[in-house]
């Protein structure tokens, strides 16, 4: 039956010529060397490990990545993140250098398998892996970093002395950015430059930290770090896509697949998103009519939108989007929401409203729009993270986008007059910790209720951790301010056999 | 080839109408504006009459000359040329001179628009511009077009294999405007038939910029909202200068086309192959590089840049200085009243200096902005403030110059690969002005109020016919009008772009046979 075997070279001895077949070839065991702590993860590991190791290593790495992601959700600065993560990362002082690096290598590749399946997971994975890489690169000492970068063989063209002299003034202007203009001339001349296509360093271009001429970016030596990172994430993304294509072949392995599935499912992040519809607070009368009253519980971003809307009888696109989703998040129904917008836009005709704005509101509720929009319920309310990155306007985060004077005016109009709080907000703003400022204001406004809640044990500390979502702000504010009422109602309900309904 | 072409002429409208009506029917699922169900019917009806027109034309066959039938894609002529048009008129597909009915025609008058798109719009060059080659490719075929219909419904994901079919659909639906989106990895019309969502993604689009005078409302004093005049147009002029210089010198782009947006702004289309292929991250990088004026109405000081100035900023500042003096201080006079001057004072450092300036200006109301600007230095020199940091003052003054002159880009347009932008040469439905390219070599001469309107253009065709009826040379309709220089400019832009793309291709393939047969 099998006829092809006459001329076949013994498979072990055959040279794998065809690159297309290379991926099917048996892995030949090769002792991996880890000269640097950093790794571009270019070659997959080939040694044997046990199943327990497989799982344990992956979980260990996952924990660090999840921590990293949490830091970014909480808007921590790179320095804060570094100190937060440091104790979690092993230090390379021990004798087990090899073992650690090996674990790093293996766990990375295991997680690649776990997170290659969908585009969403891939993007998330490459984002946090890049963060980890950046952190480690920054923590490395100069010598080790230089040696590592050298080993990468990234092609960049050095700028000749002649060219450097010719462009001296421009280069000097760029280079002294980081030093606040205090750098000596001598040091500037010593700096080495290299020249690459600007597309290789988009982040440096965006912040104007390189000099550009005719499509070439002139990168000072110390910024080369950013190029290495870009390269890292670019390669990782490419590799992940290849992994995704190879995944189906793994299905046959019934030992690994369950572990991998489990891993990708448990990549749980601290909840920065806010459940869309089940967030309505019992007993609250959330209707268009009641919105002015409720707006006292709004965080500044939503309160400012509400005020702008009342004042102008209009909001621009992003404002409508942000506000509609926020309102959806506090539990306003679509019908009520439409009523609310219609009443607020009181300078236009019904016709204009129906034509230009009705659709947008319905879209946000997932009532219309493409299949995916409807299935997704129209998208979830914006988190602080998202609000902060919006283009400024009446929408966006007032702590981030307003000047201090305007912010102070807004806060005062909301009844925050305490000098200490305003000073604190100012400092937070200067340090770009906008969510801290927001929480500070929250604590000030609710300080009596918070005290009572904790004293009486109605809310635990865990329920009162930092707010990272505007809707959480509302919910907490509402609950705190109505604590007494809630308790009463609860008692009533218990006493009256549950037939007394809340909210009339 | 030509035969097939003429068949398509007669055949497709019916089929198209059906497809169009279908598409119209389910716009609801992906369009921003709700479409009442009756619209679908209306569109269909409109399409039907169009079909009848075509049919009648066909039955009156003998009247159509043979060479007209053969006027297919290979012809060098722009489609709607005058020898054919008298016949079309006899079928009532468009009136010979809408201008006869009086000047009161609104720009959005469908008949005027129809004449414009039928006789004047440079379909051929638009096609070549987007296609980058004379023969149809996916660059054009997979390109998204979006129509804003007369009833404000928004029809997305339209695509056309050739410019003829695009033209036909435009004439059938008579959108009040249409926009150009990216080239997708598959035909946009087939997007729902694709199995996985990643198979349909945007691949390439020109890098676009949008500058709009409404963003200047807090610093222009002559007009506001939708109105403009030549005075505030100078803001656009300076913006174009700065952005154009940065794109050419810094990023090395060569094919940049600036287009008047029809009312109060300008668009840039950067058409270099490299620019088209950029992903969102790179687009965002360029947008960030160019963005200096940040923040909304409540942000206070809008320019906060690091020192020393980046070469791009210092170059821009040099170019903007004279504009600031002439076009802003003298013409706009933005700080004349004391409330306006307060805005200036808030941007200055040093409370003592600000106080003495305020006193000085309060004592002489109505002092011009030029004098006020000069006062800052004179007062500073007299030692009004003991601990004045002259460095900080200079920086603040530079920031003010930038805040009042530096381009205010709508950068969301530039950041995303799949953002749609109104096509050049479309008629702005509000003003009737054609979105013509702006010649950057004589940028200062461009007058937005002198741009031809659709009403004037149609009149010009008629006027021309009367005076020079019998020329032997075949003259196309656009050549009879004041649109001529603009279309010629567009043409030479497109030809240069195509030649460049072709040279790259030839170098790559060393295969001249395919391309050699075409001529420009």
UniProtKB/TrEMBL annotation, chain A:
Database matches in Pfam families: DNA_primase_lrg (PF04104), DNA_primase_lrg_N (PF26466)
Key word DNA-binding present: yes
Keyword DNA-binding: yes
Cofactor(s) demanded: [4Fe-4S] cluster
Domain DNA primase large subunit C-terminal, chain residue ranges per copy: 295-474
Residue ranges that the Swiss-Prot or TrEMBL entry lists as coiled coil: none
Domain of life, per lineage: Eukaryota
GO MF annotation, one: metal ion binding
A Gene Ontology biological process term: DNA replication, synthesis of primer
Positions annotated to bind [4Fe-4S] cluster: 301, 384, 397, 438
Protein purpose: DNA primase is the polymerase that synthesizes small RNA primers for the Okazaki fragments made during discontinuous DNA replication.
Protein name: DNA primase large subunit
Lineage: Eukaryota, Fungi, Dikarya, Ascomycota, Pezizomycotina
TrEMBL record, chain B:
GO BP, one annotated term: DNA replication, synthesis of primer
InterPro entries: DNA_primase_S, DNA_primase_ssu_euk/arc
Protein name: DNA primase
Low complexity bias spans: 91-102
Record field: compositional bias (Acidic residues): 69-79
Molecular functions per Gene Ontology: DNA-directed RNA polymerase activity; metal ion binding
Keywords: DNA replication, DNA-directed RNA polymerase, Metal-binding, Nucleotidyltransferase, Primosome, Transcription, Transferase
UniProt similarity note: Belongs to the eukaryotic-type primase small subunit family.
Residue segments, region Disordered: 1-107
Enzyme class: transferase
Gene Ontology cellular component annotations, sorted alphabetically: alpha DNA polymerase:primase complex
E.C. number(s) listed in UniProt: 2.7.7.-
């Amino acid at each position: 039956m099998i006829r092809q075997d006459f001329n076949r070279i013994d498979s072990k001895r055959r040279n794998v010529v065809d690159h297309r077949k290379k991926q099917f070839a048996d892995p030949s065991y090769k002792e991996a060397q880890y000269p640097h702590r950093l790794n571009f993860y270019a070659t997959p590991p080939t040694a044997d490990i046990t199943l327990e190791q497989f799982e344990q290593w992956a979980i260990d790495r996952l924990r660090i990545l999840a921590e990293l992601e949490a830091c970014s959700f909480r808007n921590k600065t790179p320095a804060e993140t570094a100190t937060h993560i440091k104790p979690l990362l092993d230090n390379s002082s021990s004798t087990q250098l090899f073992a650690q690096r090996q674990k790093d290598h293996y766990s990375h590749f295991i997680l690649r398998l776990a997170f290659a399946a969908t585009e969403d997971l891939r993007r998330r994975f490459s984002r946090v892996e890049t963060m980890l890489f950046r952190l480690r690169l920054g923590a490395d000492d100069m010598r080790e970093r230089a040696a590592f970068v050298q080993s990468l063989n990234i092609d960049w063209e050095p700028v000749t002395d002649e060219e450097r002299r010719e462009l001296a003034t421009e280069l000097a202007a760029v280079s002294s950015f980081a030093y606040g203009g205090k750098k000596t001339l001598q040091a500037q001349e010593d700096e080495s430059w290299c020249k690459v296509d600007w597309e290789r360093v988009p982040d440096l271009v965006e912040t104007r930290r390189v000099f550009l001429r005719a499509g070439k970016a002139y990168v000072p030596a110390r910024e080369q770090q950013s190029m290495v990172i870009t390269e890292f994430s670019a390669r990782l993304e490419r590799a992940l896509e290849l992994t995704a294509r190879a995944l189906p072949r793994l299905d046959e392995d019934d030992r690994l697949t369950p572990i991998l599935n489990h891993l990708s499912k448990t990549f749980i992040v601290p909840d920065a998103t806010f459940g869309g519809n089940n967030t309505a607070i019992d007993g609250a009368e959330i209707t268009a009519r009641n919105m002015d009253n409720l707006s006292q519980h709004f965080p500044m971003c939503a309160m400012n939108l509400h005020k702008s809307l009342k004042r102008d009888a209009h909001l621009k696109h992003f404002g409508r989007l942000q506000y509609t989703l926020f309102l959806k998040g506090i539990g306003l129904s679509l019908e009520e929401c439409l009523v609310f917008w219609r009443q607020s836009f009181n300078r236009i005709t019904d016709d204009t409203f129906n034509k230009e704005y009705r659709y947008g509101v319905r879209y946000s509720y997932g009532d219309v729009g493409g299949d995916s929009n409807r299935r997704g319920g129209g998208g979830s309310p914006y988190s602080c993270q998202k609000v902060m990155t919006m283009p400024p306007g009446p929408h966006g985060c007032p702590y981030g986008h307003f000047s201090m004077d305007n912010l102070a005016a807004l806060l005062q109009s909301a009844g925050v007059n305490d000098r200490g709080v305003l000073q604190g907000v100012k400092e937070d703003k200067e340090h770009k910790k906008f969510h801290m400022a927001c929480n500070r204001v929250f604590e000030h406004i609710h300080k009596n209720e918070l005290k009572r809640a904790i004293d009486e044990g109605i809310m635990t500390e865990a329920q009162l951790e930092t707010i990272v979502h505007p809707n959480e702000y509302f919910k907490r504010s509402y609950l705190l301010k109505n604590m007494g009422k809630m308790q009463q109602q609860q008692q009533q309900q218990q006493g009256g056999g549950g037939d007394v309904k809340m909210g009339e | 080839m030509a035969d097939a072409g003429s068949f398509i002429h007669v055949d497709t409208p019916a089929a198209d109408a059906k497809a169009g009506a279908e598409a119209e029917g389910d716009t609801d699922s992906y369009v921003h504006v709700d479409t009442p169900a009756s619209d679908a019917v209306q569109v269909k009806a409109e399409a039907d009459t169009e079909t009848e027109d075509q049919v009648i034309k066909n039955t009156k066959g003998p009247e159509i000359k043979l060479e007209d039938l053969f006027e297919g894609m290979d012809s060098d002529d722009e489609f709607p040329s005058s020898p054919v048009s008298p016949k079309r008129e006899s079928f009532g597909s468009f009136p010979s001179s809408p201008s006869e009915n009086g000047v009161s025609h609104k720009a959005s008058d469908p008949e005027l628009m129809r004449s414009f798109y039928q006789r004047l719009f440079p379909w051929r060059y638009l096609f070549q511009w987007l296609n980058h080659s004379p023969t149809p490719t996916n660059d054009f075929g997979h390109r998204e077009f979006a129509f804003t219909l007369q009833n404000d419904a928004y029809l997305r994901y339209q695509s056309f294999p050739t410019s003829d079919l695009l033209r036909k659909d435009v004439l059938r639906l008579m959108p009040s405007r249409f926009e150009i989106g990216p080239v997708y990895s598959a035909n946009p019309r087939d997007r729902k038939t694709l199995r996985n969502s990643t198979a349909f993604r945007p691949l390439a689009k020109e890098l676009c910029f949008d500058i709009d005078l409404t963003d200047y409302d807090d610093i222009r004093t002559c007009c506001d909202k939708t109105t403009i005049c030549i005075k505030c147009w100078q803001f656009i002029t300076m913006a174009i200068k700065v952005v154009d210089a940065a794109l050419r010198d810094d990023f090395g782009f060569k094919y940049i086309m600036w287009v008047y947006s029809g009312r109060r702004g300008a668009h840039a289309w950067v058409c270099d192959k490299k620019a088209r292929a950029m992903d969102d991250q790179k687009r965002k990088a360029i947008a960030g590089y160019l963005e200096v004026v940040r923040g909304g109405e409540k942000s206070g000081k809008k320019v906060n840049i690091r020192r020393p100035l980046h070469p791009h900023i210092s170059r821009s500042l040099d170019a903007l200085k004279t504009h600031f003096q002439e076009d802003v201080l003298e013409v706009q006079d933005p700080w004349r009243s004391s409330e306006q001057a307060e805005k200036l004072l808030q941007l200055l450092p040093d409370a003592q200096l600000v106080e003495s300036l305020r006193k000085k200006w309060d004592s002489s109301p109505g002092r011009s902005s030029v004098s006020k600007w000069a006062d800052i230095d004179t007062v500073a020199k007299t030692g009004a403030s003991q601990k004045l940091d002259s460095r900080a003052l200079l920086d603040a003054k530079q920031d003010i110059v930038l805040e009042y002159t530096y381009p205010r880009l709508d950068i969301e347009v530039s950041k995303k690969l799949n953002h749609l932008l109104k096509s050049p040469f479309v008629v702005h439905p509000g003003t009737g002005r054609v979105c013509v390219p702006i010649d950057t070599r004589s940028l200062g001469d461009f007058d937005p109020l002198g741009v031809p309107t659709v009403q004037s253009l149609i009149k010009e065709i008629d006027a021309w016919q009367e005076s020079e009826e019998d020329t032997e040379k075949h003259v196309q309709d656009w050549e009879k009008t004041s649109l001529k220089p603009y279309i010629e400019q567009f043409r030479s832009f497109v030809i240069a772009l195509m030649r460049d793309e072709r040279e790259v291709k030839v170098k790559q393939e060393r295969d001249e046979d395919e391309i050699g047969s075409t001529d420009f």
